Amino acid sequence: MLYPQDVVRMTVGNVWRAAIVARWAAAGRLRHVFLFISITVSAASFAHVAAQEVTTVAPPATVPPADSKYPDAEPVVSLTSSVPDIHAAEQQIHGNVYSANGDVVLLYRGWTLHADHVEFDSDTEEAELSGHVVVEGAENGEHFEASHGSFNVRTETGRFYDATGSIGIRRAPPAPGPGHTRYTNSNPFLFTARVLTKAGPHEYIFDHGTFTSCQLPHPDWLLSASEFHVTGAKAHATNSIFRLLGVPLLWLPYATHPVDADSRQTGILIPEIGINSASKGDTVGEQVYWAVNRSTDMTVGTIYYSARGWERTAAIRYRGPGQDFARASYTALQDRGYTPAGGKYINQSGTDVLFSGRKDFEPGAELPPAKDKAPAQSQARMVAEVEYLSSFPYREAFSSNFNQAVSSDVLSTMYFTREWRNMAVSLEGDRYEGEKRIAPEQQVRIFHAPALEFTAADHPFGKTPLEWNLDSSITALKRTQPGFATSGMVERLDIHPELALPFGFAGWRARPSLAGRETFYSRSRLPAVAVVSGPPNPPRESADPLNRADVELGFDLRPPVVERTFTSGWFRRLMGEDVRHTIEPDFAYHYVHGIDNFPHVLRFDVTDVASDTNEMEYSLTQRLFLRRNGDRPCRAAGAAADAMEILGSAGSSGDAIEAPGEAAGRVDEVAPVCGDREWISWRVAQKFFFDSHFGGAVTATGPRSVLGTTLDFSGIAFLTGPRNISPLISRLRVRTSEKLDVEWDVDYDESAKKFTADNIYADVHWGDPADGARGYIFAGAGYARLNAPARSYVEGALSSVADFNQMRVLLGFGKPTRPGLSAAASAGIDLDLGTVQYGAIQTSYNWNCCGISVEYRKYELGSARNDNGYKFNFTLANIGSAGNLRHSDQVF
Fold first, then answer.
1. pLDDT tens digit string along 351-366?
2. Number of alpha carbons in the 13 Å side-chain half-sphere of residue 224
3. Long-range contacts of the stretch 651-655 (C-beta < 8 A, 24+)
4. Residue 480: helix, strand or coil by DSSP?
5. C-alpha triplet 75, 196, 248: angle, nearest 5°
6. Residue 548: exposure state from Cβ atoms within 10 A (0-12, 13-18, ≥19)
7. Which residue of 109, 379, 847, 890 is 20 to 30 Å from 340, comparing CA positions?
8. CB half-sphere exposure, 53, CA atoms < 13 A
9. For position 326, what pLDDT does the model report?
10. Measured between alpha carbons, how far is 604 from 432 in angstroms, rounded to an integer?
């Protein structure tokens, strides 16, 4: 179900404010004052679609003042007795009339009636109550307190005087801490009334009453009216006054409010008014929310930028059974354009449409068991994530998310897949669009439509110790870019079977393998032609088909893990825990032969960058584990096995090498462990290429080469010419405690005698996130240095090196969903230019059921975007939000 906090719960002619707290009982005398306040503060009211949530945790229990009319809702006792059950100090029966005095409790038809004096007629089922009256009903979660009144249990009608109470409330078990409780209903309906008339099972009339959804006895917002009605799941009030933190703020001619937790209400959202940058001007926006049904809702609206024009927005959400869902969003702007000081005219119009969804078929359906096999599970699903973006400058200029604003890729994909017995068949279609700086504003578009794929993971080959697996696909492809385009859809058939013989001996594990690959293309590629001066002519498509075939040999070898446990000495005394050190060497040989036509292969995806190779990869991984001693119980063998358990069994077991993910599932032979956790892991790896030309795929004068064998090793295409050795990669991860994580990744290119990549990231946090603003502090820092081969434009000139030096920082305390003060700041810094690419500072303060957040945000993305703006948000629980700070914009 969808229960958005961002939907305004009040549907009013004037409905765009926010408010809170305290009782008020003299609406008529100061109405002209409230009307004046309503008019003068209307210009300061703002809205957004997704505000910060506010707490539903009640404050510590306190004794309400003697004149308080606010109830503290108690759990409702569910009773189904068909005869009246009366408990009292004194009871008398006169015919059909029961008369009782002294702390009387009447239990009947799911109702509990409590009073000092009760008279009950069993024929009419009418009860007269007086003195400390309390009425509780199980069906609607009703709780009424009054001075006196009458109630008919059969018709569920009655009248109560000086009433306070709640409707539709359940109370959860006490939260940790003395005196803390919380409502399981996030939208409680709490009221007071001079006279409460219960006109039916789900109908109430309140005379000179108030209602709120905030915790008692001092609610943050309060709505009071001379009369309001509750019919079904909604409360309706006319001629009402809204009070915020005890201050009369708004006069509302008509308002509604949901009573139950499941209710969502169609209505107009609070308008959005904000201050933006000089390039966009100020903003004014409005949206309409439509609760289609319990599982679907829609929001449609528009935002006006005073300096740029109108932006249209729409979103729809659906949540189905299981993992089924669908979401769609639409934004579009017809830009008037602007001219920066001393610059050229800029127009950033655009449209962005995004759809994502998932539908599961036969989830977990059980297949009949195969021979000598247990029953297997079959799963089928359809998944789609499709985006249409008409203009990258539009997203760069108007997206409020920095990562999205700087992204130069749009990927749309749809697929249907069915999985059974470690096999899967998929029907897929996708579209890739990327803005590349190989030439200014060059865009590359690649289509897979459709692609039929069949994959089989390792399976036993008959009764032999051999294992087989298979990757295969039939695909129609197309590529377009400036200067090159395929004339139509290019057909590609790819089959890649493998046969392996895993075995182990004396702690060693080995996996020799033999594979072959056959790929057929309906068209081929004519390589670029060099010219005497200037860049070479671009490659061209050829109508000639192409067949690519290879033979592959592989041999993975893993020696026994070398390990030592330090249970004494200075190291043990320093750490206070046993320390276990492991050393894991790994060797992998890979030989591919037969791809002698690499320059003639059209390039669409990673399948097309396969090449001949003759290489050896060697790596060494060291790990330090901490084993806690003391009274901590040992974990049973096979329960939540971690890396320590896997390594512990690997050193002595003769099991063969397993595919990724399989080892983690083998826990039957693992010994019990006592609280082991990985402290430090450090992997160093390198590749040696016996064939420096990769079968002719790499030439001394050619462009930088992107090959599959090197792309998945370091992520940097380092082949600018023939070479025998790859960069040395280092991956260091440290987790000193539950509060600190550090990662340092380095690539060192021995041929160029420089570090081509250097990335450091650290995350620190103290306290429990559940404590929120009361004790949670967090910080993060990231440093990225890249100096690697590339083809890109830097300040309008073609560069052979991608060179940048950047840092990101984050610091804050608290949580915007917890009571009290919270603050956070983040920034992205270009260390080369000494500029802040983006920065944001946000602070928020939450009371019981209202909160305020203020944020300053800055973007500096060259000529595409250089603006800053202020955003704020004021939230009233279960009513709405005022401001222009959206959930996706928050720093937390």
1. 999 999 999 987 655 5
2. 26
3. 651/507, 651/560, 651/561, 651/563, 652/507, 653/504, 653/507, 654/504, 654/505, 654/506, 654/507, 654/509, 655/504, 655/509
4. strand
5. 90
6. buried
7. 890
8. 12
9. 96
10. 10
**Residue 184, phi then psi, degrees to nearest 5:** -75, -20
Are 248 and 29 contacting, i.e. CB atoms less than 8 angstroms apart? no
Q: Quote the CA–CA distance of 794 and 787 in Å, as a whole number.
A: 13
Encoded tokens for 723? 């070479």
pLDDT (tens digit per residue) in 260-281? 555 566 777 767 776 666 678 8
Strand partners, 589: 555, 616
Q: Are 120 and 111 in contact (CB under 8 A)?
A: no
Rounded to whole angstroms, how far apart are CA atoms 356 and 388? 12
Residue 562: which residues within 8 A CB-CB, separation 6 or more?
582, 583, 584
CA separation for the pair 721, 751 (Å, rounded): 11
Contact call for residues 118 and 106 (beta carbons, < 8 A): yes
For tokens 């005890």, the residue is 246
Contacts of 610 (CB under 8 A, 6+ apart): 517, 519, 548, 550, 592, 595, 707, 708, 709
Q: Is the pLDDT of residue 62 over 50?
A: no
Contact 617, 591 (CB under 8 A): no
Q: How far apart are CA 428 and CA 762, in angstroms?
A: 38
Residues 6 or more apart in contact with residue 233 via CB below 8 angstroms: 258, 259, 260, 262, 263
Percent of the chain with pLDDT over 90: 36
Q: What is the CA radius of gyration of the chain?
A: 35
> Is beta strand 546-558 parallel, antiparallel or unpaired with respect to 562-566?
unpaired
Query: SS3 sequence, 100-134?
Result: EEEEEEEEECCEEEEEEEEEEECCCCEEEEEEEEE
CB-CB contact of 80 with 64 (8 Å): no
Distance separating the N- and C-terminal Cα atoms of the chain:
25
Peptide bond preceding 450 in cis form (omega within 30 of 0): yes
Of residues 30 and 876, more confidently modeled: 876
Q: How far apart are CA 863 and CA 338, in angstroms?
A: 12
pLDDT of 379 higher than 60: yes
Q: What is the DSSP letter of 395?
A: H
Average pLDDT of every residue of the chain: 77
CA–CA gap between residue 522 and residue 526 (Å, rounded): 14
User: Cis before residue 512, ω within 30 degrees of 0?
Assistant: no
DSSP tag of 85: E
Count Cα neighbours of 564 within 13 Å in the Cβ-side half-sphere: 6
C-alpha atoms less than 13 angstroms from C-alpha of 335 in its C-beta half-sphere: 20
Cβ atoms 295, 3 nearer than 8 A: no
Could you read off the pLDDT of 706-721 as tens digits, one per residue? Answer: 898 888 888 788 888 8
Residue 224 one-letter amino acid = S
Look at the chain and count its residues.
Answer: 892
**Is 454 a residue whose pLDDT tops 90?**
yes
- Structure letter (DSSP) for residue 635: B
Q: Residue 592 — φ and ψ, nearest 5°? A: -130, 130
